[in-house]
Amino acid sequence: MDQGTGTYADAAYNIRGKVPVNVMTEKRLAVLFPGIGYHTDKPLLYYSGKMAAAEGYEIIKISYPPCEVNLKGATREQILAFVKECVEVTDRALQEAGVTGADATEEEAADTAQYDDILFISKSIGTAIAAAYANTADTDIRHIFFTPLEETFDYVKESSGIAFSGTKDNWADHGAIRRLCSEKKIPLTVVDDANHSLETGDVIKDTETIAKVMKTVKEYLK
Q1: pLDDT of 85-128, one tens digit each?
Q2: Which of 208, 126, 130 is nearest to 171 (CA)?
Q3: Which of 31, 100, 136, 149 would bridge 104 by S-S if both were Cys, CB 3.0 to 4.6 A apart?
Q4: Residues of the chain below pLDDT 70
């Protein structure tokens, strides 16, 4: 589905298409990594993806295999095991969509190098998967981390992106997220009283928050 000058393509278990390497003069790729319950059709990812497409990014949406544990109550080891599994799925998905993976040949890697800008937009557990996958890549990848988990920062490279978090996020310790963002030099936008979806329950306030967040996202896209 075309959005502006970009193109949407579902990856992993549901690939709808891809854009040939030579379609755009400046190759820009944005990959959306959802949360477990926060899919790419929900506000933070939907509007970020739409905005990226309008800026000329090719869009790929990643899907994950079924998760056999409740991640909210999972141990650190269980979370990291799921992240590892999803990194492997992501690698296969991006290869199927025309993006080379960690085991790419020199010729395939040369094709990937034609991307002038690669951006990962992620949510919740997706932030850990995106950061972990980026560590396998031979190119610089920028990140937009929506409500990252503490485990995400096991993989985050310094100054590699921006982040957003709510003070009442019950999936992560907000103080720890602040500290980890500071240590990794990741600018953090804090939403007071917001939960893991960056929502407070006040619809008017939440729509205003989305608008402010998207302004920050747009600035980062440029």
Answers
A1: 999 999 988 887 777 655 555 655 555 557 889 999 999 999 99
A2: 126
A3: 100
A4: 1-25, 100-113
Question: How many whole angstroms separate alpha carbon 89 and alpha carbon 3?
Answer: 26
Interval 194-205: pLDDT, tens: 999 999 999 999
User: For the chain, what is the mean pLDDT?
Assistant: 85
**Cross-sheet strand order for the sheet of 188-191:** 2-3, 6-10, 58-61, 27-33, 115-123, 142-146, 161-166, 188-191
- C-alpha count within 13 angstroms, C-beta hemisphere, residue 202: 9
Do the Cβ atoms of 118 and 141 come closer than 8 Å? yes
Task: Give how far the C-alpha of residue 176 lies from the chain's centroid of Cα atoms, to the nearest Å.
Answer: 20
Cβ partners under 8 Å of residue 57, min gap 6:
6, 28, 29, 30, 117, 119, 221
pLDDT for 2 equals 34
Would strands 188-191 and 27-33 be described as parallel, antiparallel, or unpaired?
A: unpaired
Distances (CA, A) of 83 to 22, 29, 73: 32, 22, 15
**Which residues lie below 8 Å from residue 200, measured CB to CB, with a gap of 6+?**
168, 191, 193, 194, 206, 209
